[in-house]
Amino acid sequence: SAYSTPEAIRFFTQALDLIDEVNDLGLARRGYEGLAGAQTLANDVGGALDTYRKMFAYGISHGDIPMEVSSRSKMGWVSGMRLGQLAEAEEYLKEAELLAHQCNDLPGLAEVHANFCFIYNSTGNFEADFALSTYTGFTYSIVCTDIASAGLTATPYNLTGKSKKVEITVTVKDLRGHPHSVVLSSIKTIRGG
User: Fold this and answer.
1) Strand ranges (DSSP E) for 33-178?
2) CA-based end-to-end distance of the chain
3) 183 in helix, strand or coil?
4) Which among 74, 109, 68 is positioned nearest to 89, based on CA atoms?
5) What residues have CB less than 8 Å from 134, skipping those under 6 apart?
6) What are phi and psi of 148, to 5 degrees?
7) Cβ proximity of 179 and 171 under 8 Å
8) Given CA atoms 185, 186, 189, 191 in this order, what sign does their dihedral have?
9) Residues ≥6 apart with Cβ < 8 Å to 64
10) Backbone angles phi, psi at 141, to 5 degrees
């Protein structure tokens, strides 16, 4: 089949039906993230949010705070990017950040901050005053490139001649000084002038 998202949803659902028998937190997390990602891709945003809520509950019941961080961070992304509910997205991201601090989940913190940057930069607010707390060792990099410079001159990317490739990198260093980074990129059309 040329379009396999419905198949992916079916397989992830079957895998999650068996997850209690396996008792593997890593597999559970990948199953929840895979199912919600496929649901988001299929425009079943309500289903994706419900799956992330179940993932959050699973993390609580199994004492896996990084799983809770991941679910809330992704709920923030879905709420902000797919539903345009910025206030709700910010609440999910703030909760994810607090949880990540509790267990020193640096990859989770990087994801939370990257999602916050991505959501607000998608609205054209490239100078956002990020409401999340500061955390030692975080660096942000936001690069806006003209589409032609990024090698994406095809018409779907640049119908107006005002599109930019926006790439956001968030890096945090752990206690040993090792960096953990998340990179997000997107094509944005600059409206007006």
Assistant:
1) 139-146, 163-173
2) 44
3) strand
4) 74
5) none
6) -60, -40
7) yes
8) negative
9) 25, 29, 58
10) -135, 125
- Tallying the residues shown for the chain, one arrives at 193
pLDDT in tens, the chain (193 residues): 457 899 999 999 999 999 988 889 999 999 999 999 999 999 999 999 999 999 999 999 999 999 999 999 999 999 999 999 988 998 999 999 999 989 988 888 888 888 887 787 666 555 554 545 544 455 656 566 665 544 544 444 444 555 666 666 767 666 666 776 767 665 555 554 4
Do 130 and 117 touch, CB atoms closer than 8 A? Answer: yes
Strands 179-189 and 163-173: antiparallel
Give 110's contacts (C-beta < 8 A, 6+ positions apart): 138, 170, 171, 172, 180, 181, 182
pTM score: 0.70
